[in-house]
Amino acid sequence: MPRPCKRRRCMAEGELEAQSEPQDLMSAPVSIEEVDSSSSSTCSSSFPSSFSSSSSSYALTSSTSEEGFVASRTSSPSHSPPGACSSCTAMISSPCSQFSAASEPEEGSGSSEVMPCAASLSKGEIDVKVDELVKYLLFKYLMKEPVTKAEMLSNIIRNYQDHFPLIFREASECMQLVFGIDMKEVQPAGHTYILVTSLELTYDGMMTDVQGIPKTGLLIMVLSIIFMEGNCISEDMVWGVLNNIGLYAGNEHFIYGEPRKLITDDFVQEGYLEYRQVSGSHPPSYEFLWGPRAYAETTKMKILTFLTNINGSDPRSYPVWYAEALRDEEERA
């Protein structure tokens, strides 16, 4: 049985002041303190809460059965993605939370925070710390530096140390779902982590128009949809899903840049997606499939495991997709 839906956050809407232009994190080191002044919460959810289209719902990620998924294809529901309740819709769709670049984070800088009462700690206070930790982890990823629990506690968590497990978990989920970055513990005794792209993918999208912010999360999303739609999906269906999370062809996005360029140019040129005209279509229509690099670097079983880990279920809970993933493993052997 899938576990209960967890509270996740990635970019709270409504509390933040919009900035006119997203900044290039590669152009200068990230200032955690300055970034915090421009957005009071970077994490108020995990993956988009309406990860569906009118003809296809991402049933797995909404903790539903494959039977529910099949039924949903004949209706127009609005299902949630990977176990998310009020997920990372805000992170992905809200342009008001943007990353700024200035000076390096001030390690161990002072804080005017008053020690909060554990029983009265508000959602907003947790959001702020998750926000700060996500930005700190992005900085560490960009600098290709490991991060330790001690660093996170002293530089970011500070007076909220009793809430570190919750803050750390939600920040880690945000990194994984929005940016496609995993935190891997390499020294358990010292709680030291490295940040790497999810699913062993070797491309993080940081050489595209919006430099400095990893974009593997969107690639994983598209690969997952293709797999669950029978390994081929129409371009219209892809945009039906992406429109539901605030991504529109031709509209600049503060994390992903221009989505059509990223998906149909960059992901295709990098070999992760195949973009082809539907045979005999008039006027021409197009569809997406996995590209050779996707097959070389990841597997359907890894995709399914990734999604069910987030969902809190087991890959075998989805026998049709699990059987296909097993066939894929056998063909590769």
Automatic annotation (TrEMBL):
GO terms for cellular component: nucleus. Gene3D superfamilies: MAGE homology domain, winged helix WH1 motif (1.10.10.1200), MAGE homology domain, winged helix WH2 motif (1.10.10.1210). It comes from the Eukaryota. GO terms for biological process: negative regulation of transcription by RNA polymerase II. Residues 37-59 have a biased composition (Low complexity). The keyword Methyltransferase does not apply. Residues 126-325 form the MAGE domain. The keyword Iron-sulfur does not apply. Pfam families: MAGE. Keywords: Tumor antigen. Coiled coil: none annotated. Residues 1-59 are annotated as: Disordered. This is Melanoma-associated antigen 10. It comes from Cricetulus griseus (Chinese hamster). The gene is LOC100754546.
